[in-house]
Design goal:
The complex is a heterodimer of chains A (222) and B (438). Chain A has 222 residues and is α+β, with helices and mostly antiparallel strands. Chain A has four helices and nine strands; from the N terminus they run βαββββαβββαβα. In chain A, a hairpin with a 6-residue loop joins strand 3 and strand 4. Chain B has 438 residues and is of the alpha+beta class. The radius of gyration of chain B is 33 Å and the shape is elongated. Classes of the chains: A alpha+beta (222), B alpha+beta (438). Chain A: It comes from Hibiscus sabdariffa.
Chain lengths: 222, 438
């Protein structure tokens, strides 16, 4: 499947993310002849185990993430970031977990926004909001290059696209920039050929960054 | 229309001069058509009606124009009811014209002009109704021999002229296409080409060993380590293309994480199983970069006739040498490749396949080689407003040896250009090329 890079908005020190930034970014895409196609939405959930004996809590991983992606409506992805495990399951697993009362959702977030087509590139710009809330927590962006699936072969192309993109965004003097983490997918047992599991892993890491940012802001306040 | 009137007058004078059994045999010999008149008169009437029909058609055309005009005027602001009035007027007259045309048409049909029913009737003096040929030429003369001769002659003449024009054009623009009547081999075709101005093809000297298709392909595979070459009979390719996994269906559920070479599951039969003289499709696959499909015509020969590029992950029955990829980058390359193919065929058709295949291989650096003009990999193409890598690789000064060198940025490596970067240089090159042709 076509490969994709996921970016996270990194606000400058002392500034926070707001919806004006999101608007500016969307306008930037449109200025590059991006054609708005439709909406997209992904969800990310932090699970905690339902234990009778709380003492056992230490044996369970602290961060157990479940992700649903719009391009795979029948699948659900689990990631354990510390243990570098990613698992693709059928989407009915959520129902099973609920029935078994094994894991409960602790925090759930939505990534939602618009999708744009730029020739062979597909861009998604989205806001990060907790479900049932309009509180903007972050901004994410996906850049997908449709013709090929090899991460290795596409690296130069994606690098250059990011250059073009950063050029366009910097003209708007926004208080921050988009960041992409180079991940080592082989740690997760993933190959060079791109799949939705790669996407899930990227989102889990983006989440980690978002948390770090929020914590940094809070630490700054205290 | 003037001609028809002249014919009419001519016929009438002929009728007047000829012996006149018509008056006595009118009722018995004429066909039981409505008119009950002698064939010459029928011919005259038919010519008349044809003229009428032509005039009505012209009127209808004019009417249509006027209607459109009225609509256009009505669309302008600040109009009175004038356009509406015009419209109504035209509408009425159009309907009348159409009705009249129908009437005339019926009459013509009944008298056999439009359906040739009279030709078979033997008792009509040898006079036949004017013949309206399928290409709308009206053959007026009713004398049997003349009619047959004229209609036949006109048809034959027209065909002969058309065939001549077509053959001339074919010889001029597609000199490499074989004439089947000559039953010739590729050698004869290249003999014809010695009359064309010779281009700088001194690079092609080593190609004399690659005469057969299998030699060519074997050598190619040897030279290009990343390349997978597969050959097919024409129908086998269709099966293969349809069974290739399309990118959207790339399901990761079944395959384990370390093994995503799904396209390898559908490898074609090994080359020695397909008999060489049936090979019609060559597939060049650079994993993760592209898949090119070349068609040979006739099968088993070394004459390519079309080429197309596709994504390595594309699949479907639309993937063939005259098909089009769903991705812009590969569509652009395919367009460029089609022109390159014509160039290779025009220059030296014997080595066209060799040149083409090596030239295709120069695209293995599609996603890594920067443009020789601007030094970047991606650029926004002004014309299509798309961001593309350098999709042009020059073919005029192409030499197979360039491709065989390493894929790095050395000066010997094949050049690559963005569409806009290339067209500036290409304009100059084209001008030089045209000068040499003169």
């Amino acid at each position: 499947m076509p490969l994709k890079w996921v970016f996270n908005w990194q606000p400058n020190a002392g500034s926070t993310v707001n919806s004006q930034i999101l608007n500016e970014v969307s306008q930037c895409v449109e200025s590059m002849n991006g054609v708005k196609e439709g909406r997209w939405k992904a969800t990310l959930t932090f699970y905690k185990p339902m234990l009778r004996d709380q003492a056992l809590a230490g044996e369970f991983p602290r961060e157990f993430i479940g992700i649903s992606l719009p391009e795979q409506p029948n699948k659900y992805y689990f990631i354990l970031r510390v243990n570098k495990i990613v698992l693709e399951a059928d989407s009915s697993i959520q129902l099973i977990m609920e029935k078994l009362q094994s894991y409960k959702s602790r925090v759930a977030l939505n990534f939602e926004g618009f999708q744009y087509q730029l020739g062979d590139f597909q861009l998604r710009v989205g806001k990060v909001v907790p479900t049932h809330s309009e509180n903007l927590r972050g901004i994410v962006m996906e850049v997908e290059y449709l013709p090929i699936s090899s991460l290795e072969k596409s690296k130069l192309i994606m690098d250059e696209f990011v250059d073009i993109w950063q050029d366009a965004v910097s003209k708007r003097s926004l208080p921050g920039h988009f960041m992409h983490i180079e991940l080592n997918f082989s740690d997760y047992g993933l190959a060079d050929h791109y799949t939705s599991q790669h996407t899930a892993v990227q989102y889990a890491h983006v989440m980690g960054q978002l948390i770090a940012t929020v914590q940094a802001v809070q630490a700054g306040r205290n | 229309m003037l001609q028809q009137h002249q014919h009419q007058h001519h016929l009438q004078s002929v009728v007047a001069a000829a012996p006149n059994p018509s008056s006595s045999s009118t009722t018995s010999t004429t066909p039981s058509s409505i008119t009950g008149e002698a064939p010459p008169k029928q011919v005259a009437q038919a010519m008349d009606r044809l003229g009428q029909a032509a005039r009505l058609i012209a009127d209808i055309r004019l009417g249509a124009d006027r209607l459109l005009e009225a609509l256009f005027v009505a669309a302008q602001p600040h109009q009175s009811s004038k356009p509406l009035h015009l419209f109504r007027q035209e509408d009425e007259s159009m309907r009348q014209h159409l009705q009249d045309l129908r009437t005339v048409g019926k009459q013509l049909e009944e008298s056999g002009v439009l359906n040739e029913s009279l030709r078979s009737r033997s008792n009509s003096w040898g006079l036949h109704m004017p013949l309206v040929c399928p290409d709308c030429a009206v053959v007026a003369y009713a004398w049997k021999r003349q009619l047959a001769g004229q209609a036949g002659a006109s048809a034959v003449d027209r065909t002969r002229l058309a065939l001549k024009a077509f053959t001339d054009q074919k010889r001029r623009f597609f000199p490499h296409l074989n004439d089947e009547e000559d039953g010739e081999s590729t050698d004869n075709v290249s003999k014809k080409h010695r009359n064309l101005p010779a281009q700088a093809d001194d690079n092609q000297d080593n190609l004399s060993d690659c005469k057969t298709l299998s030699d060519l392909l074997t050598n190619l595979e040897k030279d290009m380590p990343n390349l997978k070459v597969m050959t097919y009979e024409r129908l086998d390719w269709l099966k293969r293309a349809s069974s290739l996994p399309a990118a959207a269906n790339d399901n990761t559920m079944e395959a384990p994480k370390h093994n995503f070479h799904s396209s390898h599951i559908l490898r074609a039969a090994p080359q020695n199983v397909v008999s060489m003289d049936k090979i019609a499709v060559i597939e060049l696959f650079f994993p993760s970069v592209f898949r090119a499909v070349v068609s040979l015509h006739p099968a088993g020969s070394t004459d390519p006739d079309s080429v197309a590029f596709f994504s390595p992950d594309e699949g479907g029955s639309y993937m063939h040498s005259r098909g089009s990829s769903v991705y812009h980058v590969f569509r652009q390359i395919t367009e460029h490749a089609t022109v390159a193919l014509q160039y290779f065929l025009g220059i030296r058709s014997k080595t066209a396949l060799h040149s083409l295949l090596h030239w295709i291989c120069s695209y293995q650096t599609l996603f890594t080689k920067v443009c020789n003009k601007c030094g970047r990999l991606l650029a926004m193409d002004r014309q299509s407003a798309l961001i593309l890598p350098p999709v042009h690789r020059p073919y005029r000064t192409f030499s197979a040896s360039k491709v065989l060198s390493t894929q790095d940025q050395s000066s010997n490596a094949p050049e690559a250009y963005h569409i806009s970067c290339f067209s500036d240089d290409a304009a100059l090159a084209l001008a030089l090329y045209c000068n040499r042709l003169r």
